[in-house]
Structure formats: C-alpha cells, structure tokens
Amino acid sequence: MLGERVIGFIGAGNMAEAMIRGLVTTGTVVPARIIVTNRENRERLARLSWQYNIFTTPSKAELLARANVVILAVKPKDIPEVLEAIRDLARPDQVVISVAAGVPLARLEGALPKISVVRTMPNLATSVAASVTAMTYGSQVRGEDRAVARALFEALGRVVEVSEELMDAITALAGSGPAYVYRMMEAMTEAGANLGLPGDIALLLAAETVFGAAKLVRETGEDPRTLRQRVTSPGGTTMAGLQVLEERGFSTTLVEAIARAALRAKELAGGT
Ligand SMILES: NC(=O)c1ccc[n+]([C@@H]2O[C@H](COP(=O)([O-])OP(=O)(O)OC[C@H]3O[C@@H](n4cnc5c(N)ncnc54)[C@H](OP(=O)(O)O)[C@@H]3O)[C@@H](O)[C@H]2O)c1
C-alpha cells in the first residue's frame, strides 16, 4: 500500500526514531524513501542518517516538497509553530499524520483546511513493530489516504480506529501504558533480587513473564480474569501474592492512575 511513497518526519526525537527503526527493520519502507527534519539538533540528524541510511534536511520546505506522507512528531507545545510553518507548503495530495498527544483534529484541520489529516496515538514499541496505535481521521481523509495511514501503522503493530473523543483515554492507557508496565517490571526485578536472584536473571524472568502473559491473552483470546483464575489455586503461592496486591490496592491504584493520566491528556489538549 505504501508503494513508492516518501515518508517525511517533522521532529527527529524518540517517537520519530522508534517509527523509523520499525519501518526500516521490517522492510516496510526503504530507507531512501524516509526524510527527516528537526528544529536545530544537527548532530542528531547526522546520527539518524548514518544509522538508518535515511535522508535528513534542515528545511521543512524540502521535506514537504518530497514527502507524500508527513508525520508530525514534535511535542504538543511545538505543534502550533510547525503548523504555521507548513500551512502554505502542504498539498492536498499529501497525508499529514500527527502523533502528538492531546492535539485535536480541529486544531490540525484549522491550520490545514484542505489537507487529509490523521490523528494517531502510537507508543514506543513501534520500534519493534509491537505498538498498538489508535487512529482517528479528519474530514478531508478519503479512502486511499486512510488505507495509506493505516498501512503505515499496521506495519508497526496493531491498529484500532476510534472516534476522537476516545483518544485521551487511549493516550492514558496505551500511550503511557508501557511506563506502567516498566514500573511493574522494575519492582518484580527488585523483588527477585531481594530473594537472592542475580539481577540479570531477575530481569529476564520479569520481562519474559510479562511477554508470555500478554502473548497468552492475545493468542488464546481468553480474558485476563479467566487466565488469572486458572493459575490461582486456593491456598497456593499465587493467591498469597495476589492477596497482598489487593490489600494494598493494586487494581484500584492502577485504575486511578490511568484516569489521572487521561485527565492530564485533556488538560494538555486545552493548553495547560
Ligand atoms: N515518546 C513516547 O512514548 C510517545 C508516545 C506517543 C506519542 N508521542 C508523541 O510524539 C511526539 C514527539 O515526542 P518525542 O518523545 O519524540 O519528543 P522529543 O524526543 O522531545 O523530540 C521532539 C522533536 O521535535 C523537534 N522539534 C521541536 N520543534 C520543532 C520545530 N518547530 N520544527 C521541527 N522540529 C521540531 C525536536 O528538534 P530539536 O531536537 O532540534 O529541538 C525533536 O527532534 C509528542 O507529541 C508526543 O506526544 C510520544
């Protein structure tokens, strides 16, 4: 679906690199069809160019002239400046995709009224093609634009298409989600070390346990509750551990954390 299209990134930070790495390592886009720009960090552009064999440019005009798909990968606070810079450069035959948390379609379309714009929320696992990306489409997006945007993110993991009002919840759950899981893995590793396991083995056990548990949910289609009940024998070790988690409010704390993150996404969208 992506064919001969050139993919341009405005912003060359963590998210852009994660996507570039995912696109290049999966062979979805040949490096010569990727072009990247940023604001001022030329060393970073040189490193990306050297590492992934992609094109870089200090000029948004050059990027907009060459790219068929333009990805806005700057912080939400920098989006207005970027929109201002590209409003007279973007063309109706291009698709502009934002990955910025909390930036509404209305703001993107306000600056780029005749352009197909797509709002997305991927996560850093795009770099290993294991993201889950939520997508919502602007009013100018036609069938082919939609297919192109979707193909790009399907190459980097799973995709869910949602209405825009769900994006803050998705940002809180899946955009910020990897950090919650990393926090849990840190604690699991620490617990293993406290019990005498070598640090590297404790980390391997934590990582593979999280991976295996998620894989089982994904591949069997069984819900986590059923799987949890199956591994929890009355009076057994798992039950002893789960009891402590629940006495200390593990699930309610996580529910509250995700609700707080969603609120923060809303605040950011409002510019506070
Ligand atoms: N990181 C995540 O896990 C994650 C997950 C989902 C979505 N996102 C979204 O991804 C976006 C980027 O996040 P990040 O973590 O990649 O940020 P980052 O590492 O701070 O990178 C931001 C990039 O934007 C560039 N930039 C800033 N202003 C610019 C301008 N006016 N013109 C051109 N480039 C400009 C910066 O260039 P200089 O370095 O030269 O200033 C830098 O390359 C954010 O909107 C975030 O909400 C991130």
Offer a concise description of the structure:
With 272 residues, this protein is of the alpha/beta class. It is built from 12 helices and 8 strands. The model has no long low-confidence stretch (mean pLDDT 95).
Could you describe the 3D structure shown?
This protein is of the alpha/beta class and 272 residues long. The chain folds into two domains: 161 residues, 3-Layer(aba) Sandwich (Rossmann fold); 95 residues, ProC C-terminal domain-like (ProC C-terminal domain-like fold). The chain is built from twelve helices and eight strands. α7 packs across α12 and α8 packs across α9. The radius of gyration is 21 Å and the shape is elongated. The chain binds NADP nicotinamide-adenine-dinucleotide phosphate (NAP). NADP nicotinamide-adenine-dinucleotide phosphate binds next to α1 and α4. NADP nicotinamide-adenine-dinucleotide phosphate (NAP) binds next to α1 and α4.
Describe the structure using short key phrases.
single chain; about 270 residues; alpha/beta; Rossmann fold; ProC C-terminal domain-like fold; 2 domains; eight-stranded mixed β-sheet; about 55% helix; elongated; binds NADP nicotinamide-adenine-dinucleotide phosphate
Q: Structural class of the secondary elements?
A: alpha/beta
- The percent range for helix content is 40-55%
Low-confidence stretches: none
What compounds sit in this structure? NADP nicotinamide-adenine-dinucleotide phosphate
Shape: elongated
Largest sheet: 8 strands, mixed
How is the CATH topology of the largest domain named?
Rossmann fold
Rg, alpha carbons: 21 Å
CATH superfamily of the largest domain: NAD(P)-binding Rossmann-like Domain
Mean pLDDT: 95
Residue share in β-strands: 5-15%
